[in-house]
From TrEMBL:
GO terms for biological process: galactose catabolic process via UDP-galactose, Leloir pathway. Keywords: Carbohydrate metabolism, Galactose metabolism. Pathway: Carbohydrate metabolism; galactose metabolism. Pfam families: Epimerase. It comes from Clostridium perfringens. InterPro entries: Epimerase_deHydtase, NAD(P)-bd_dom_sf. Belongs to the NAD(P)-dependent epimerase/dehydratase family. Residues 1-134 form the NAD-dependent epimerase/dehydratase domain. This is UDP-glucose 4-epimerase.
């Protein structure tokens, strides 16, 4: 689970572990929190843009699929710092896909969590804000 130390990612990890899945978390902790990492998961502090380190994670583990939450999602910030968002969201995903292909991993679920809150009425959005999924 890329971004498994973030809000949605950590909850996904919890559900996967509850179902008996072995979970590997890759998170650079830029916006995630080490306290959110489930101790039953194997954790790597790795940035998805670091191809060499990410490839090591894949080679050390028997990864069959990826759930990808490691993206920046603040719309307002993306307008003032678009290169940060391009670098992480586009380039990071490109590196992840390249490493997946090199390691014959063919399944991915990609999710952006900001849609959970719908149209923001204030910034920044916080975890306790009311949810109104735009894709429901």
């Amino acid at each position: 689970v890329c971004g498994g130390a973030g809000y949605i990612g950590s909850h996904t990890v919890y559900q996967l572990i509850e179902k008996g899945e072995e979970v590997i978390i890759v998170d650079n902790l830029e916006t995630g929190h080490i306290e959110a990492v489930n101790p039953k998961a194997k954790f790597y502090k790795v940035d998805i843009r670091n191809e060499e380190e990410l490839d090591k994670v894949f080679k050390e583990n028997n990864i069959s699929e990826v759930i990808h939450f490691a993206a920046n999602s603040l719309v307002g910030e993306s307008m003032t710092n678009p290169l940060k968002y391009y670098n992480n969201n586009v380039h990071g995903t490109e590196v992840l896909l390249k490493v997946m292909i090199a390691n014959n991993v063919k399944k991915i679920v990609f999710s952006s969590t900001a849609a959970t809150y719908g149209e923001a009425t204030k910034m920044p959005i916080v975890e306790t804000d009311r949810t109104e999924p735009t894709n429901a």
